[in-house]
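User: My collaborator sent over this chain with a note saying "see what the structure looks like." That's all I know about it. Can you take a look?
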Amino acid sequence: MSRLLGLGLALLLLSGCSSYGVISNKPASAAESQQPYSIKELSGRRGSGDVALMLAFSGGGTRAAALAYGVLQELRDTTVVIDGQSRRLLDEVDTISSVSGGSFTSAYYGLYGERIFEDFEDVFLRRDVQGTLMRSLFNPLEWFRSTGRTELAVKYYEEVVFPGATFADMTRSGGPLVLINASDLGYGVRFSFVQEYFNLLCSDISPFPVARAVTASSAVPVVFNPVVVENYQDCKQTLPGWLTEAQQRVERDPQLTEVVDGLKSYFNKENRQYAHFVDGGITDNLGLRAIYEVVEISGGVKVFVEKRGRKSPRQMVIISVNASTDVEPEMDKSNKQPSLAETIGAVTDIQLHRYNTATLSLMDNSLKRWAQALSTPAKPVTPHFIQVAFADLPQPEQLAYFNRIPTSFDLTDGQVDRLIAAGRELLRNNPDFQRLLTELAH
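Assistant: Without extra context I'll predict from the sequence alone. Here is the result:
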């Protein structure tokens, strides 16, 4: 991260003119007839119904993408019996929430399904994505582009990783609901690329490029410009009913009040003509708060389940794939003053780890509360919060190795191999995961 920040500062100094975001989102069309990519339409379209399985993929560059990929492999190869039928746990996944590096894995699986196990390593994990982008960024001809540096990343991802793919393709794929999350730079609110959030912009998500959403989710500020969308005003007369109701419900919850206020800001017609989206890790580096906010703002878990026509599951499972590392600071080995990049990186890491801890506690408590709310005497709901993280590796030398893997988009084949294997091992050996398998076996 420090290297990325240092590069960003250098590029900032080299930039000699203003740049403008390319607008790719279209206004909502009354003639639109295809199924929208939305939480309402896509929640629960996969799985048996007895297991509600949600995944959350963190940020962390290719390190996060590879760890999440390993978890998907392990879920693919884990077979359980549900209602007398043998099923892979991967087929029970109905929602994936992701930020930054984790969004490459989630979006690829959401678009292409099983194909991810055939070519994702070659298409993304084992490519020097960072080197390709940096060579473009250091091209003097690119320093004064009116469209900004981020368009180089969008172009690369559109050509190489998600060629021509839009959210209409995500709808047709039959995969799980994938929440690709970014951060609204202006108001600090988390933004998910689904139709419900695009409705706040009076916009249609179906033709929006998946590559642009993933770029927004991973656009580290300073290094890359924000991804800009237009906030159309044609449909905005009053606040939608669900947002007004949410405002009343959360008035005693400061955190959710901030979320609702941020969403209301899109109705500020004079000052919010555009929205600027950057790395989703700024507002939630674990991808968990998107799940929490969607459920709570909708009115709670019972309302969320009922509105989507789903039955209460018997097992409610969230698997958090956390690729964050804990690196020993080099600055404490000398009395030399740390560089600006080191200082910014250290401050970022401190805030990140503290926020992650709070988020994990919030999700653990919320999942237990949701399961209790859905339980009946005849049909109890069991919560399972499964945390996949490097800290659970059994050997200190293993932990030290993974802590040294940088947050970048250029890892060696050996690093990718070990990250994939770690994702599988950490999930397979997790006590909470083993408890889930035991309960499903009875």
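A starting point for your reply to your collaborator: Confidence is low (pLDDT under 50) at residues 9-14.
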